[in-house]
Amino acid sequence: MYLPDFEYYQPNSLAEACRLMAKFGPRARILAGGTDLLHKMKHGQLEPEVIVSLNGLERLREITYQKGVGVVIGARATHNDIAGSALLQEKYRSVCEAAHHMANNQIRNVGTLGGNIVNAVPSADLPPILIALGASVKLAGSQGRRVLPLEEFFTGVHSSVIEPDEILTEVIIPDQPSTGSTYIRFGLRRSGALAVVGAAVAVTMEGETCREARIALGAAAPVPMRARQAEAVLKNQVITPDLLEEAGVCAARECSPRSSIRGSEEYRRDLVRVLTRRALQKAIKEGHV
Amino acid sequence: MARTLTDEQGVKRYLVNLKVNGDNHTVMVKGNSLLVNVLRDELDLTGTKKGCELGDCGSCTVLLDGKPVNSCLVLAVEAEGREITTIEGVAQNDKLDKLQESFVNNAAIQCGYCTPGMVLSAKALLTRNPHPTETEVREAISGNLCRCTGYVNIVKAVMAAAEQE
Ligand SMILES: Cc1cc2nc3c(=O)[nH]c(=O)nc-3n(C[C@H](O)[C@H](O)[C@H](O)COP(=O)(O)OP(=O)(O)OC[C@H]3O[C@@H](n4cnc5c(N)ncnc54)[C@H](O)[C@@H]3O)c2cc1C
Ligand code: FES
Ligand code: FES
Fold it and tell me: B61 and A106: CB-CB below 8 Å?
């Protein structure tokens, strides 16, 4: 399997990368880890004339804590960078776990956070937990920069609000009141299989009372979705097993999964019910795991 | 970044410095050359295999700065200046590595197609974690498919090599 020809650039500044993307527009593609882009090019699904690699931008790989901002993860951080980050392990182990349980080791060593988001596939493993934690994304383009909630980034399967000349530079997880978060995914195998459904939650508990819950589902709709009705079921309520089940039932009702080779619509809905309940139980009991 | 040369037809090529198994090589590649093909076709290191060519099977696994990656999904230009280990670089001074011996002794090789990738994934694990649990071994090789399905003996071989450490 060979790749079609393209022109290759490896800029060593973000400004230069943006300038190249502005110059070539939709004829160009960003290359991060390439685990998705090269895959698509081998299949002839994409044939960019120009490739702009982010490989020269080491700073986009950093994971830092910025006071007053939160945890900032560079878009070029790989899944294994995220899984192994001491900072994330300490603050949001749920994010490390989500990165650790996806794909396989070889893919996790090169595949990046930015690629996982910009790809905009419903089954992507990182968006749900990041949305549950209220994360934002920063986009840099020739016209300047903008920050928007990750939740508002996706517009459909393989589509998002990113402009052809924009580069996703970082994901910001803000400091937050939530006391626990988790992501549970179900795949047909434990390794190398995309999620049939993924459920992420972040909860703010005060004793036995849930002040707020944020639930984000993967592979349950064309885009990663918030299960707002299920969240409303939990708001300011004393948590009981029945209430968690009710939230799961509610999430299963409000999602809109499709049938595919990995699972039928009905099966996915039932998975949403079960995984939402389990994720809530875990985050309430164990914190940010 | 690698040096660029443009020929009369306007085709760009890149002079890429690769450090493979400790040896420095300079190769001329096109932008779309994949690392797996450069290793096999230019450097004659055919121990690295090609199976799916899509990142699923792990038969093209090499270590890039010590970490296992699928060389079928890496552009050769992007490997500029990185340290690459292929299966040919595992044995030192013509003597099999303990891990390779262990594969032989535990009958962890059937047709052998997955073996280079399996050995490299396991090697990276043992370097990082000399005494892994069985679960950690299974996890480390989970991106390597064995079409002969000989996983039980492969796991045994890695565990046995770890015990000898
Ligand atoms: C065998 C295999 C298993 C996989 N398993 C999983 C899995 O379990 N879960 C999962 O979620 N995914 C999985 N994937 C999909 C993929 O590996 C991941 O989504 C990965 O995170 C993509 O990142 P990348 O850096 O390789 O992206 P690339 O291939 O480099 O890029 C993907 C797309 O995003 C664009 N892009 C990348 N970075 C940026 C940026 N910073 N700014 C703007 N645009 C950008 C590119 O132009 C391209 O269109 C798997 C892939 C393979 C091959
Ligand atoms: S040939 Fe590279 S993963 Fe299968
Ligand atoms: S020994 Fe034949 S593929 Fe593994």
Answer: yes
